[in-house]
Design goal:
By secondary structure, the chain is mainly alpha-helical. The chain has helices at 10-20, 27-31, 35-38, 41-53, 58-84, 87-114, 125-152, 161-183, 185-190, 195-229, 235-267.
Length: 268
């Protein structure tokens, strides 16, 4: 190799291997690397491929999904306080939801700037950004719901209170299941959105569909029971109760859309 490093020098061996064998590791080559060098080979190769493909963009997306779920989850305590008429606690939980929604917005802006257009990815940049926008709508809806209920100091009629709390909880379950699918995104990304990880995500999406269907049935039932007593309520209050019930159902609907978007990426 001319006047350069001897052929068995670790740096020369690694450089030659990366240039000539970028698709797989050559067992003969690995055997000739000293133990002290071999233990760092993973970092060397990972750094090389990182320059080509870029760092995985999915970890920030997962963190964003976690924040969106927490905003939805806060609705459970929010409505429990509403049911008790504890408006001081309601205000506290409303502030938690607003803070989480703001944090989700900050993450959304950061993700837009972090996902580079100049790196190779198994899915398009636009698909990943669309996923972020979809899960962001879960936090947005949680904020909308809490704002309407707190702003009007809405009362939940005793006849539907238990149903309402169960309905809120099941919609939050859907958001939690969507969060579970997003938690698999890093492994899914590394697998190129194929293989066993893809099958796992598809099974989670199927579970999410079942939860969303349950929330649809619960919404029908609670609206029917509200209709039985609506004449005992001020008309405006009844109208806004119907609206809040619909908005709560949006949590599960939007969670399902997140799961379906992942499924689309898998099947492309």
């Amino acid at each position: 190799m001319g006047g350069g490093q001897p052929i068995n020098h670790p740096e020369v061996m690694i450089g030659w291997h990366i240039r000539k064998q970028t698709q797989c590791l050559n067992p003969f080559f690995v055997a000739r690397i000293p133990v002290s060098t071999a233990k760092n080979l993973g970092n060397v190769v990972a750094g090389y491929f990182s320059k080509i493909f870029g760092d995985s963009p999915v970890v920030p997306i997962q963190k964003h999904g976690e924040i969106c779920y927490k905003a939805a989850r806060a609705l459970v305590k929010f409505f429990a306080a509403v049911a008790e008429g504890d408006w001081k606690a309601v205000h506290k939980h409303r502030e938690t939801i607003v803070a989480l929604e703001n944090e989700a917005d900050d993450f959304k802006r950061d993700i837009r700037s972090q996902i580079s257009t100049g790196v190779m990815m198994p899915v398009s940049r636009e698909d990943l950004l669309d996923l972020v926008l979809l899960q962001d709508k879960i936090a947005n809806r949680a904020r909308d719901i809490s704002g309407l209920v707190f702003g009007r100091k809405m009362q939940i009629p005793a006849a539907i209170k238990d149903q309402m709390l169960a309905y809120v909880g099941r919609n939050v379950d859907a958001a939690k299941k969507a969060r579970s699918t997003i938690r698999e995104l890093d492994d899914l990304y590394e697998a190129g959105f194929k293989g066993k990880e893809a099958s796992l995500v598809e099974s989670l999406v199927d579970e999410l569909d079942l939860i969303e269907n349950e929330t649809d049935d619960m919404q029908i039932a609670i609206r029917a029971d509200l209709m039985k007593i609506e004449q005992t309520l001020p008309p405006i209050e009844a109208m806004f109760l119907y609206r809040v019930i619909e908005m709560i159902g949006d949590i599960a609907d939007r969670a399902e859309v997140v799961g379906r978007r992942l499924e689309v990426l898998i099947n492309r």
